[in-house]
Amino acid sequence: MLHRIVVLGAGYAGAFCAGYLARQLHSDDFEITVVDAEPDFVERLRLHQLAAGQDLPHRPLREVFAGTGIRLRLARVTAIDPGHRTVTVADGEGEDQIAYDTLLYTLGSTAARHGVAGVDEHAFHVAARPAALRLRARLDELDEGGLVWVVGGNLTAIEAATEIAESRPGLRVGLATSGELGGWLGPKARRHLLRAVDRFGITVHEHTTIERVERAAAIAADGTALVSDATVWAAGFAVPPIAAAGGLEVMADGRITVDRQMRSVSHPDVYVAGDSAFVIGDNGRPLPMSCASAGYTGLQATAAIIGDRTGRTIKAHALSYVGNHISLGRKDGIFQLVDSDARAKPGALCGRSAARVKSAIVATSGWAISHPTFGKPSHKYRAATGRERSTALVAG
Ligand SMILES: Cc1cc2nc3c(=O)[nH]c(=O)nc-3n(C[C@H](O)[C@H](O)[C@H](O)COP(=O)(O)OP(=O)(O)OC[C@H]3O[C@@H](n4cnc5c(N)ncnc54)[C@H](O)[C@@H]3O)c2cc1C
Q1: For the chain, how many structural domains are there in total?
Q2: Which residue(s) pair with 203 in the sheet?
Q3: Nearest ligand 1 atom to alpha carbon 14
Q4: How much is the pTM?
Q5: In what order do the strands lie in the sheet with 203-205?
Q6: Does 251 share its domain with 135?
Q7: How many angstroms separate the CA atoms of 195 and 201, rounded?
């Protein structure tokens, strides 16, 4: 009987893992199904660009997985039942269940609201494609001089604010952050960031905690109202509650706790990669939610699945955190390396060359995801059957 591997999510972690498993596992023994709510691969790394008004490459998942043998189910995951090894999904046709023998959970994350009143009703964000498109539509409506406040002081907030300021020079952009803007950067990178923010004309309010978002203002803890035509909430990421509701052991923030091989500590037939996983990296600290972490954890999870299913030795892949790439519009950027304690190193690559490196990394990640078996069907499959694989779009 075929061993059913179900991959939840076809983002950076899920799409990569599914392709890798299809390359490595024999299709006579394994059936791989990927479930995602979106018909296209979502390049989350570039959603601030989409929101600012730029167009991104269109990468339909059906084409991405063509020729790999991977079954694609376009549906929203609404629940998991690890006790009965089933996943509940919903699409336009209704709800049904998918049974699995091995589950790979890579549902990623979305914007963290931190329980702040009014965020759901009045704020925009760039952590998911539909949300980025809503923000873009709102920016299109604004007149010259329209005011956009971005809330947050970390990578996504900086990238969103600078991208909007560069792409929409007629708008006024502000950044409100509870700490120091880029306070975690080394001195060279921080100086560069502050100069760039100044060049874009972005107003910065540091040590400003937003306690409430209203239709036309973000309200700070001291009562100051930041009048706003569009408030962009970019104060971190949070995972969906599906894993916790299904009974998997999770941290307080809902991320799934895993062992070093990326198996759920409560349900070892559930493997986790990407933003959904809480795992201690090689530096002794939790890996940050990032595209790089999705790559490292994806490599480790697939090695564990293959080892557990075939008896092959499970290689210990690095779980590293080496630094951050920050885009500052299309022509400027920062590449900040960190040391083994995750502290910023004093130097940094800044300016146009950092922007070029970042854009090459983003393009390479997008290309690699859209070629999950590097354009080739599994050599094992061809050797065994003499046939090419086809992709089945699994109906409801
Ligand atoms: C604007 C922006 C800029 C960023 N820039 C960087 C950067 O420069 N460097 C960096 O390292 N990281 C960056 N990140 C973070 C990075 O995008 C994430 O850490 C990374 O995408 C995590 O990969 P993942 O596979 O875990 O999740 P995702 O890439 O989010 O994939 C999750 C997939 O699951 C699907 N999904 C989610 N819920 C459901 C459901 N209920 N049912 C069905 N399908 C579902 C989604 O459609 C998606 O395809 C950025 C994020 C944003 C939003």
Answers
A1: 2
A2: 174
A3: 25
A4: 0.94
A5: 123-124, 230-233, 147-151, 172-176, 203-205
A6: no
A7: 10
